[in-house]
Automatic annotation (TrEMBL):
Its EC number is 2.7.7.6. This is DNA-directed RNA polymerase subunit omega. It catalyses: RNA(n) + a ribonucleoside 5'-triphosphate = RNA(n+1) + diphosphate. Belongs to the RNA polymerase subunit omega family. The RNAP catalytic core consists of 2 alpha, 1 beta, 1 beta' and 1 omega subunit. When a sigma factor is associated with the core the holoenzyme is formed, which can initiate transcription. Keywords: DNA-directed RNA polymerase, Nucleotidyltransferase, Transcription, Transferase. GO terms for molecular function: DNA binding; DNA-directed RNA polymerase activity. One of its GO terms (cellular component) is DNA-directed RNA polymerase complex. Promotes RNA polymerase assembly. Latches the N- and C-terminal regions of the beta' subunit thereby facilitating its interaction with the beta and alpha subunits. SUPFAM superfamilies: RPB6/omega subunit-like. It comes from Acholeplasma hippikon. Pfam families: RNA_pol_Rpb6 (PF01192).
Amino acid sequence: MKQNKEGLRYPSIDALLDKIDSKYKLVYAASKVAHIIQSERLDVDAKSVTTVGQALEEIIKGKVDITFEEWTWYFSFEL
């Protein structure tokens, strides 16, 4: 089986930080979306085989709407 060796090159951290202004918020959002993908066994159209990679791809595609407010973060995820 051929492995995907993209690693952290796709999607690029710079492109992701254009979507979400903080690395910490990005990690939070990616973990939440990855949990949704895994727990609901969603079939997403992504190059990555890991759920975190798939979550990052969904964020870069703009399929995740995240609102960060003081002390509370809200997000919605649509496929």
